[in-house]
Design goal:
Oligomer: single chain
Number of strands: 0
Radius of gyration: 12 Å
Order of helices and strands: HHHHHHH
Structural class: mainly alpha
Helix content: 55-70%
Largest sheet: none
Number of helices: 7
């Protein structure tokens, strides 16, 4: 239910829900976590940039790191540049490619 709620809010780009969604970035369910990250990117929730950077830097889950890179690119906050540069060297080719794509948007 939480994942579906995050997805729905991201689809309608309801930016008023950004702060509440940010509280679920540390959800114990990885599927909820990446859905929240994706939704925040869709909303261009600049207030979530620091938290998404932290998750990108600390997560070992490929889908979470992919969605974090994607969201940071969509948000477009230049403060994400160092984290995305580091992620561009990730051992996962998918994460590395997404980080490079996100960097091009900053």
């Amino acid at each position: 239910v939480r994942r579906l709620a995050a997805f729905t809010l991201g689809m309608i780009k309801d930016s008023s829900a950004g702060d509440k969604l940010s509280g679920h970035l540390s959800d114990s369910d990885v599927n909820v976590q990446w859905s929240v990250i994706w939704a925040l990117g869709e909303m261009k929730a600049t207030g979530s940039t620091a938290k998404i950077i932290s998750i990108l830097e600390s997560s070992s889950v490929e889908i979470v790191k992919l969605r974090a890179c994607e969201a940071l690119g969509k948000i477009g906050d230049a403060s994400a540049k160092p984290a995305l540069q580091a992620a561009s060297g990730d051992s996962s080719k998918k994460v590395s490619a997404m980080a490079k794509k996100a960097l091009a948007k900053l």
